[in-house]
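Supplementary Data S3. Sequence and structure tokens for construct A.
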Amino acid sequence: MPRDRRMEEGMAVIPVLVVVLVVSAIGLGLVGVMNTDITHATIQGTVSRSFYVAQAGLQEAVVRLKADPNYRTPGYPAAVTPQDFAGGQFWIWVEDHAEDVVQITSRGRATTAGRTVTAEVRTTALVGPPVAFGLFGVSTVEAQGANSRTYLAPWQTSGPGVPRGPNMGSFQEINFQDSGSRLNAVSETAVETLTLRDGTFNDWELFGFTSRPVYSPDPSVDPTPWILGVFGDIVKAQPERDPWPHSCTPLTYYACLTVRSGSTDIATVTQLRVEENVRHVYVNRIRRRILPAVSLASEPLLQEARNNTANAEVNRAAGIATPDDAVYTAEEFHCLQAYLSGTGKQLRGTIYVNGDVQIGGSVRATCGGRTRNLSLGNQLTISDGTLAVEGNLVMDQNASLTILHDIFGTNFGTVPADPGRAAAARKKVALAAFPRGSSTGRFVMRGGSQSKFTADGLVYTSDGMEVGPQALVDLIGAMYHNTARHTRPSFLNNNGTTVIRYDPLAASRLVSASGIGVTILSWQQLR
């Protein structure tokens, strides 16, 4: 082959080699880029996994706080036990941050393709509800008169402040009309006793004291702090939805605390006791809280009464036209009271009355086809039951209403109650008042030295409750009072005595707009 031709063939190979080299370089570059992308994707995937593992830890903390608002851990960054999640681990720290606000820190760690990445997130959250309310009024909660006595105590105690007494709150206003009104003033200047359904007690025994606590009632001196810790709080509440302002100064959507006809919003216990001279009020603190509005449904109680056949015999004897259930007109219920008066017999189960009802005194009614004036007697007892009134309920002067469940056992605890049955009984409603036509669902005790309302469970009204002079309320459970008119109190104690031994199970029938909640206020990623 000629030499020139061989040279031409050799020269032809050079472009091929150049193309191969260029393609190889590009290929190697692409491989490098792909390898870098894969590495970055692996790292990013691990970062994302660690972040979502940290978020899972945050949600775990929220779940625990919903189950137990008092859930706390050692402070960050103290050692806490890690929890496995989706091939990674998370650590959570829950610490007190401010009033009803907690700080939650969550650390998540994940490993992918041998790479381990850690992420941390932190939030502050408002914890609540639940709040242990022995007494809550949507409208004003008010005490009138120097003889007004209110005790908000725990149901069962094992020592002073164990558990602490329940709270009193309102969406509108808490008002003390008289500086002599007493709230939790246990034997402040002299021993005071209370005769309740399960015995006669020195008032300080309600809070677990084994002897009378000694503290100065001087308004210029605060009581010893450990005494205050026994009692609950005054809670100025604000509804979660549709908050409405009041006339207090400064203007706020939270309820205000006032004395007499003043409009100044009192901020502290010291200001209340010292500056305003309301020295007979003993609470742990005054605080603000956003809470859901709650209500009680009437239909389940109506259905319980329809299914209640326990009173058929007394219904027939009283001339009730449809004796086989426990749903009555107001007139039928008055006929039933007149028949029961003096017989020693009791009603049982859930009772539902359509119309305005009176306990005690006299009324004119038609019973068994005969219209006459009826004496209702002064005492009505409902055993293991509920009284639901669609209308207003009025207790005449010196009348007595008793609604008990089996929470003590036979003879108020001398024989222990079955725990399961007792717990179920504690969840029941004692008394409920619902609106009907122009009747707003209000419960009024007119008072008198023999006037007593004794009950176990939840007391609920659509338009509030009034306790008249000398009347006694003996409740193991809780109270929640709604309002039809914001211009009158949801709860008024007018020179009566109200004893509420708080049982948290009693409020379980209430329907909440949002339920137990944890509201996230702020969020940040630490790393």
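Construct B, processed identically:
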Amino acid sequence: MSALRQVLRRLGKSGLAFLLVLALYLAFYLAGRLFPAFVTLFLLAPLGAIVTFRALRFIQRHSLWSVRNRLLFVYGLMGVLPLLLLLVLVGLSFWGLTNDLAIYLANTALERKLDPIVGAIDSLSRMPAAERGAVAAEMQDAFSKTFRGIAFYVRDENGAHRYPLDSPELKLDPAWKDANGLLFWRERFYGWALRANGPKQVFALAPLSSELVENLVPNLGVIALIEVKRSHGHPQLSLSLENPEGQSEEPRLQLHLPPAVSTFDIPVFLPSTVQHYHVDAPNKTHEGVLWVYSRPSAVLSSFFSKSEALRGTLAVLFVVVVILFLIVEAVAVSIGISLSHRLTAAVNQLYEGTRRVLLGDFQHRIPVRDHDQLGDLSESFNQMTGNLERLFSVEKEKERLQTELEIAREVQSQLYPKEAPPMRGLKLTVCCDPARMVSGDYYDYQEIAGGKMAFAIGDVAGKGISAALLMATIQAALRAQINLNQPNTILQSSLVVSRLNQQIWANTAPEKYATFFFATFDELTRNLIYTNAGHLSPLLFRNGDVSSLDSNGTVVGAFPGAIYDESTLTLKPGDLLLCYTDGITEPENPYGEMFGEERLIDLVKKHVQRDDRELLQIILEAVRSWTGTPELQDDMTLLLAREVRTA
């Protein structure tokens, strides 16, 4: 019971519905109930599509994990499935050919049966009125073996006449024109022919019995004419024949089939449309169904030659082609199995190798036995594991260097001022955003004797460790110079920068240098004395205007005999001095345009009344948005010096 429940759960509602409809189709088909079988066949199509989709999903999830199963599935798609489709195509083509041949035979035989009626009506329409009765009686005798109950009708200026007199009365609309073929009247089919000349109408009705229709082609099988009726807009099929006594006949299709010549000579239904007329619809044709229920052997034997020699030759050729086809299939299967074994073995070795690598065994190697693409793949895997082993060593070294960089960053962070900037009539606000883990930008500030304050900003050439080391050298040298002059309270900025230049030149490589700006501010006089050694000129914002400070010399550390001057600036209430490095103005957008000094000036003018810390964040965000990338192109350092009055 548990297994049954599991099977039902796997099938689901769609699977159970498919099996039920399939069982109904087989039951109807084997019982000869063709119309219900035809209806259930249409229901099988969508259910079969759903079941197939579910089956493919199940196979994909549970059966196609291994490469071997996938290869077998591919072989099935490339070999078995095309073969099945070929067989289906051959079967459908054979069924279509059989259908066309059977319908052609039935239609041709029916037309031959009805042609004499046309000739009889043509003759009767030309007869004088006095001779029509006798001629009609002779024609009835002539047609008695073919069409029992045939009737002739004449309507002219002398009135309406029926031959014989007990024939059912039929009045045709005067709109009818010449017609012949099939007529559906009183729930049955008739063969008929009509000749109309104005009000004159001459026509004949020949009832088609089941025996006549079924024997149109001897030994073919069952032939039936079926009327397509419409009920509420939907077509319905019904067998529309009567026996001569007027009693309805039940279709006994399975009783009239020719014997089968082989196991595969199964009964098939072969439908086609046939045009016919209705009495109440002048000159308008309607579609019915000409249904042939036969066997392929009966259709072929009725159409083709019955030469036994020709059939034997065709049978031998067919057997030879089948044997050759099976040999080719067997060779293809053997080659496929051999190749799949090699392929799956190589894939299994690669899988085991990747598992070993996943566990950290980079010394594992795959044996290479063949010099083909699989062998090259194995060799590539061995080279990859060797490269991984080397990369693992490099990664360890990189982690060690990363650790040292972390230490360097911690050390550099200790070099920056630890205390808040002193308030000596000048409020300093500073921020530094390094492009890498360590920065080559430098800033510093320190309170000195006599109510003064010194501050500096610099930019070391280069990035990374070397720039950070030079930055540390500059910081140590500057602190030493400031502390050396503290007792005297006289600190000349030009002298400090000159000594700093000589010290850097003497203790670093020739290619190492830095831009440097150093200034001292006197709270009493409000004078700012500064030396700009090749640094970007700081910007002074005063009453809505902006001006650049002077440059007093070249960079420090490049030329030992460089001479530096100093300049004096008196700050007024509300003045704002902006010092920055090239990481603010030189970053480029995706089109290669630099942020530039003009955008910086416009940005500061717009937000000059903001809090200094907020203003710094606005500038940094604007530069990042300009570059369009989270990675900085250079170290960004900003120093704001705002003149303030203290009580």
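Residues 231-254 have pLDDT under 50 and may be disordered. The CA atoms of residues 226 and 239 lie 5 Å apart.
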